[in-house]
């Protein structure tokens, strides 16, 4: 971007602030295109007052009041989080229900990818051996076995992409029958049935845990036509010494590898895509570049008959009225309200308020508070009707645009979307994060071109071109859609090439013991 030409971005005509687009920000005395003179330096992504504001005047961005002035603010001033106070959270009563006229797009036909068909009708984008555990006590043994499987067995089975451990810190030392305990249990169960694992479940148990394999996979939990789980229990009498455990795990893994190696990619319609979208390390450009482009791609996937999950209850709570207005039915709207009410109650129990969400990095990137952050987050959902709501840990049973309720934590959100059946993950970032998942390909989008240049071998898409005028939201949206099809067909993302992945993180509202 040409530093000699001051650039600001105003999202809507009703906004009384704009953000500075120039790399490095703009110094005091800079004259903007409309003649406005900056009375102080404003960092990149941060807001400048376009009008004189009096004490308690509303500050408007995205056409929404994101805060109120703490005292008089002259036009041309830098508006940071320090000079604002947040508005009250939107009441969950009397929300608009299905009142927003969503665009009735024509179907998008003819788009396909090469995927792995499963007996339950789902389609994998990778061909992986997954090893599930019932309790954290066995994690070290699995880790040792996985290394040997990769080194000694995997080279014999070239059609299998990798072996992954679905590690977690659950299964014992918890109140297994407490209210809320069903969430981590069903999450582990449904993680094991992700489409990328080919209807093949391998389980490692200790033998004395509160979550035995029979409870993790009760009768009827495995779809008809899918193989029943194979279980290795470390406390079984047959195991004499550590290496006998490893030998049993290796032999069991090889039987699974033989089955997986017979799988081949087939041409599948784009309607088989199950895409999870998420943002992390957000900044003020998230809602300007990357997230709107994701929203455009979301509309394309839904038009093609596919499924997109958007999430992060803690970050969309302040936009609940915009979401219920797009609900396909009153029942869907009420389900979203139920998830938001759970979050409100959770904050009360914890003795905190929603201002705890924004991070130092968010604020350094220009986001003053959770209201502003929410407005930039929800645009990932595009513009179609919301056709379903998924509670944490549940598995998808329908197509379309789905609100999958998760916390905003990158790792918990990714884990829950994976349990829901996600086969491709989209992750946008403004500050930068090397986030990845071992079991699902993650496409990472930079909100700024500066980040895309510096992290050129970590970011798959540079959405910052939207801010510079080099590309439109539609351009980047189509680019992302085509990249999703390529990645679903086997193209490796940067995170996959570097084998970067974060540990899975369960959402457990139940008490520990």
UniProtKB/TrEMBL annotation:
GO terms for molecular function: galactarate dehydratase activity. Residues 15-85 form the SAF domain. Pfam families: GD_AH_C (PF20629), GD_AH_second (PF04295), SAF (PF08666). Belongs to the UxaA family. Keywords: Lyase. GO terms for biological process: D-galacturonate catabolic process; galactarate catabolic process. This is Galactarate dehydratase. It comes from the Bacteria.
């Amino acid at each position: 971007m040409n530093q000699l030409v001051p650039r600001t971005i105003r999202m809507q005509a009703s906004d009384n602030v704009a953000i500075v687009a120039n790399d490095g920000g703009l110094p005091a005395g800079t004259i903007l295109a409309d003649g406005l003179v900056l009375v102080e330096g404003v960092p990149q992504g941060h807001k400048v007052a376009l009008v004189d504001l009096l004490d308690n005047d509303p500050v408007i961005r995205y056409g929404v009041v994101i805060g109120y002035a703490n005292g008089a603010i002259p036009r041309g001033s830098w508006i940071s989080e320090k000079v604002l106070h947040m508005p009250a959270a939107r009441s969950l009563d009397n929300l608009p229900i299905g009142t927003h006229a969503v665009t009735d797009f024509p179907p998008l036909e003819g788009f396909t990818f090469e995927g792995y068909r499963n007996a339950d009708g789902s389609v994998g984008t990778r061909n992986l051996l997954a090893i599930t555990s019932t309790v954290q006590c066995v994690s070290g043994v699995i880790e040792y076995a996985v290394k040997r499987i990769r080194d000694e067995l995997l080279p014999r089975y070239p059609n299998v992409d990798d072996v992954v451990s679905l590690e977690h810190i659950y299964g014992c030392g918890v109140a297994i029958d407490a209210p809320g305990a069903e969430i981590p249990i069903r999450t582990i169960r449904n993680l094991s049935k992700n489409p990328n694992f080919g209807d093949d479940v391998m389980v490692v148990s200790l033998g004395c845990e509160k979550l035995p394999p029979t409870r993790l996979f009760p009768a009827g939990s495995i779809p008809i036509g899918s193989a029943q789980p194979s279980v290795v229990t470390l406390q079984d009498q047959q195991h004499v010494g550590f290496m006998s455990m490893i030998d049993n795990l290796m032999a069991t893994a090889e039987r699974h590898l033989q089955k997986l190696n017979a799988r081949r990619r087939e041409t599948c319609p784009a309607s088989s895509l199950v895409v999870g979208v998420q943002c992390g390390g957000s900044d003020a450009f998230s809602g300007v570049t990357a997230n709107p482009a994701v929203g455009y791609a979301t509309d394309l996937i839904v038009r093609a008959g596919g499924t997109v999950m958007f999430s992060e209850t803690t970050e969309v709570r302040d936009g609940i009225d915009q979401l219920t207005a797009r609900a396909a039915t009153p029942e869907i709207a009420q389900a979203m309200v139920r998830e938001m009410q759970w979050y409100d109650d959770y904050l009360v129990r914890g003795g905190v308020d929603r201002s705890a969400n924004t991070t130092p990095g968010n604020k350094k990137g220009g986001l003053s508070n959770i209201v502003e952050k929410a407005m930039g987050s929800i645009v990932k959902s595009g513009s179609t009707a919301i056709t379903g709501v998924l509670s944490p840990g549940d598995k998808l049973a329908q197509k379309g645009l789905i609100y999958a309720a998760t916390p905003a934590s990158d790792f918990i959100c990714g884990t829950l979307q994976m349990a829901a059946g996600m086969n491709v993950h989209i992750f946008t970032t403004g500050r930068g994060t090397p986030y990845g998942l071992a079991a699902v390909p993650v496409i990472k989008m930079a909100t700024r071109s500066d980040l895309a240049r510096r992290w050129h071998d970590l970011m798959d898409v540079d959405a910052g071109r939207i801010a510079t005028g080099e590309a439109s939201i539609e351009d980047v949206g189509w680019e992302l859609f085509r990249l999703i099809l390529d990645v679903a067909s086997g193209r490796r993302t940067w995170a996959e090439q570097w084998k970067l992945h974060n540990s899975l993180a369960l959402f457990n509202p139940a008490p520990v013991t």
